[in-house]
Amino acid sequence: MPDRGHLAVRDPGRTVMIRGKVRRSQLVAPFGPGAMHVLSDGTSVITAGLDHWFPHGAGRNQEEFRIHEWRLEQHLGVDALYSPPDYRTRSADQVNTGLTVPVLRFPTWGFCPRCRTLAKDRLHQESRPVCKEHETSSRKPFLAQVPFVAICERGHLQDFPWFEWTHKAASPTCRGHRLSLRSSGGGTLASQRVSCTCGATRNLEGITSTRSSTESGPSTFLSEELEPGGPEYLCRGGAPWLGIDREGEPCGSPLRGSLRGAANVYYSLLKSSIFVPETAASTVDPKVLAVLQDGVIVQARQRAAVLLEEGDRLPARMLRRAAQGHAFLLDGFSDQEIDRGLAALQAESIAPGTEEPGSDQDPAPFRATEYQTLRGAIESEELVVREPRGQYASGAAAAFARVRLVEKLRETRVLRGFNRVFAESPYDGASRQALLRRTPARPGNNWLPAYAVSGEGIYLELDTAMLGSWEERPAVLQQAELLTERFSNLAEQRGLQKRELSPRFILLHTLAHLLINQLTYECGYSSASLRERLYESPGPDGMAGILIYTAAGDSEGTLGGLVRMGEPGRLEGVLESALAHAAWCSSDPVCIESKGQGPGSCNLAACHGCALLPETACEEYNRFLDRALVVGGLGKNELGFFATS
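^ thats the sequence. predicted structure below, dont judge the formating
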C-alpha cells in the first residue's frame, strides 16, 4: 500500500488539490490535527480535525484502514483506530480512490512582498491570494503568509491580532484603513514593525515573552501589553483546524505570540503499545483471535452473552447475528474456526475490558500485560519472543536476571490529543482528545488516528532482590529525592501533577540510554532509530525491565541486527563498553558533580556527552537521568548499582 497521503482544502461542495504530499505516519505525528506545516509550494496549512477525514459514499470502506489493537482501544475508550488514508488514483475496480486528508490555509493573514500591505483571506482559500493593491498590474504578486501566530496553553490557536496590537486596543475603532508589515533589517522582533494608514504604528518586541506569576497565575507580555492600562487581552478560543477562524468559546488563558514554525506551537500526545495477543498461549489462528478481540466484535460478544446461561459457550452463528453491520469482519472464517477462538478466550477467562488502565504519570498497570508476555516465550503472527541460546558470561549473567530476544514485534502509536506552549499540560486527557474534533463523535464512531510499525528488540530485566538492597542505601535515596524535588519545582510552576521518582526508575531509565548509545556503534542503527520502553513498579515483586527496540513502517520490519546483539557472546561486550563510557564523560567533573542540568534542571549526571538521546528515543523528554546511580560518582561508589569497589 502506498505510504503517501494527499492533502486538500475542502470547501462546501468543492475539493481542490494542493500540491504536496506527506507520509501517512506524519499525519499522526508530528502533523496531526491542529498542526501546521509547509507544503512544497510554500503554502502553510493546518491539518483539519477528524470530523471529515473519511467521507461516506459509494466506493468507501473505512474498515480497510482499521488497526486492531484491543488494549489501546480499551485504554483510550474508543471504538476503533484507523490509519490515515493513502491516496489512490480513481479506478473503476478499486475502492477508496481519491481520498485526501482535509487541510486549511493558515495563517489567513498575508503580506505583499512589494508594498508590504497586510491582508486577510479565508481559511478555505483555494488558490494563492494576490495583493489587491496591484490588481491592475500585469504581474500580480502573491501574498506571503505572515510568520507569526498566537497560541495559548489550553491548545487554542489564532491569527496574530494585528489590528489590536497596532492600535493598542482590544476593540480598535479604526475602520477602512490598511496595515503594513515592514522590517528594518535586524534579526530581532523589535525590527519588525506593523503600521496603519491612520498613523498608528508599533513593533513586535516582546510578543513571545512571558510575565512572572501573579495571584491569577502566569501571564504573557502580549496579553498584558496589547492594551496598556486596560484589561488583559485573553484567548478567544480560536481553533482554525476545526473551521473556527477567529473566535470560538473564550477560554480566558493568556495569549502569547509565536513563530508559526516554532517547536512549542504543537506537541503531539501519543500513546503506544506493543501488541500482545489476547490469548498468548493459544494455538488458534492469530487472525481469528485478532478479529474476535476487535472492539466492535467484543461489543457483539458482550451483547450476545446476556442471552446465554452462565457458563454456556457462545456459538459462532449467534455471534454473527449479534455483530449486525460488522458481521463482514467474520466472513473470512468458518464457524469451526470462530468456535475454537471463542473457546480459547473463554478457557483462559480473559474478559473484555479487564486491561488495567494506568495513567500518563503511572503507566505501569497498562504495561503489566506486556511485561508478563515479554518475560516468557511466544510465537504469534505479531509477536515473537524467544530465550537466548547458550549461557551469558559472568558480567551479563550477574547484571540481568532475564534476557529475551524479541525477534518480531508490532507497535501501535495513537494520537490522543496535543499540547501547545509546553509538552506537558495540567489539563486532563479528555480535554486534549476533544481538541481533535469540532463535534463529539457519535456512539460507535469514536475513533482516533494511529499507525502501526514492525520491528525487533532486546528485553533486559534486573534482579529485584539485588535492586531491593541497593534501593535502601541512604545515599541512593537522597540522590533520587533531589531529582524528585527538581521536578516538583517545575511541576509547581506549570501546574503539573507531581511525581515521586524512585531510584529503580532512574536506574532503568539511565541504563537504557547508556545501552542505546553503545548499541548505535554495534548494531548499525542510529540512536534516533532505537527506542526505550520501561517496565517499572516498586517492591520485590515489582517490574524492573527494559525493552530496547527499533520499528519501521513497512510490513517486514527490521533485519535482525539488534536481536543479534542480545545473543550470548555479544551482549556482554555491549554492557561492558556502555558502563566504561559512562564512568567518564567529556564534561567531567562538571557533569558528574551536577546538582541539576538539562530540561527543567531535571537531570543530575547526564548531558549530551554521556547519556542524552534524540527525543524520539526517550519516553521522558531526556529528563530524570543520573549515571551516578549506574556506575557511581567521584568518590561515591556506593551510589552505583554497577559500581565496582
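The mean pLDDT is 86.
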